[in-house]
TrEMBL record:
<feature type="region of interest" description="Disordered">
    <location>
        <begin position="264"/>
        <end position="337"/>
    </location>
</feature>
<feature type="compositionally biased region" description="Basic and acidic residues">
    <location>
        <begin position="264"/>
        <end position="280"/>
    </location>
</feature>
<feature type="transmembrane region" description="Helical">
    <location>
        <begin position="52"/>
        <end position="71"/>
    </location>
</feature>
<feature type="binding site">
    <location>
        <position position="141"/>
    </location>
    <ligand>
        <name>a 1,2-diacyl-sn-glycero-3-phospho-(1'-sn-glycerol)</name>
    </ligand>
</feature>
<keyword id="KW-0808">Transferase</keyword>
<comment type="similarity">
    <text>Belongs to the Lgt family.</text>
</comment>
<feature type="compositionally biased region" description="Low complexity">
    <location>
        <begin position="282"/>
        <end position="295"/>
    </location>
</feature>
<feature type="compositionally biased region" description="Basic and acidic residues">
    <location>
        <begin position="298"/>
        <end position="311"/>
    </location>
</feature>
<feature type="transmembrane region" description="Helical">
    <location>
        <begin position="91"/>
        <end position="113"/>
    </location>
</feature>
<feature type="transmembrane region" description="Helical">
    <location>
        <begin position="23"/>
        <end position="40"/>
    </location>
</feature>
<dbReference type="InterPro" id="IPR001640">
    <property type="entry name" value="Lgt"/>
</dbReference>
<dbReference type="Pfam" id="PF01790">
    <property type="entry name" value="LGT"/>
</dbReference>
<keyword id="KW-0472">Membrane</keyword>
<feature type="transmembrane region" description="Helical">
    <location>
        <begin position="237"/>
        <end position="255"/>
    </location>
</feature>
<keyword id="KW-0812">Transmembrane</keyword>
<feature type="transmembrane region" description="Helical">
    <location>
        <begin position="177"/>
        <end position="195"/>
    </location>
</feature>
<keyword id="KW-1133">Transmembrane helix</keyword>
Amino acid sequence: MDIAYIPSPSTGVIHLGPIPLRGYAFCIIIGVFVAVWLGNRRWIARGGKPGTVADIAVWAVPFGLVGGRLYHVITDYQLYFGEGRNWVDAFKIWEGGLGIWGAIALGAVGAWIGCRLRGIPLPAWADALAPGIALAQACGRWGNWFNQELYGRATDLPWAVEITAGPNRDAGTYHPTFLYESLWCVGVAFLVIWADRRFKLGHGRAFALYVAAYCVGRGWIEYMRVDEAHHILGVRLNVWTSIGVFVLAVVYFVLSAKLRPGRETVVEPDREGSGGKDGEDAAPADAAPADANADADAEAKPSDADAEAKPKPAKAGAPVLTKDAPAEAEAPEAGKR
């Protein structure tokens, strides 16, 4: 009796004339756009400027792709080096093989460079981008479906994925671990968004929550995979990596909450002010006219000294003194009584 299953694409590439469109690359590109779009909305909501997330992503994405590929090649070097292997295949990123740990690590270096150039704190930018990164991973995992990779043990569940025969794989139906991880990443994204709104996470804690939550899911999903991998004490290398990164993320979350509670009040300083320091506001445009008006009023209004110097009007019947009047008119003669 036939069982239900998720069919795999017969090919992972579609040719438009001489131009190949690869499903793996297409999924990664969609993920990048989703991450930048959501990150931009969250950055603006925190008081940042539109376009800043995309500007920094120009640095973070290339670094992340290189880091992800390096991690994969280093941890699975037997696929590219040794007898019967071609080391040139290590550069064929379109055939699959990106390690999320290397992508996050080296992508953070690129993001740090971009943040330094813009004068903004890296933790605040990472907090804004955290749920978007999780959604980007959810999209990117479907690239593994196109390449028929990252599946688990054989199963006859209705949602099993069909794998066709090929190099290093047998035909059959298997646990779609790529689908499990994709759904888990969507859940992580919503968890971070909810927690950030509920507890006002700041100073990198939203990003730390994303890392910790992802590691929990990656740990149990990794146990289901059957592809070739290095083992330490009988446990897959990526499981150990998940445990280590989870511990680091939790430690950072706790220490950050104690040392720097609350959320940043300013995430992107204003560099357009006329002051000498970032974030100083320029003088109001109407300040100069107001001062000019005040000076004009001061000139028009006589001072107290001028008021005293101005002669008072004479009383009726009193002699009017003029500049040419004789001195006798100013005072009676000494002999007269």
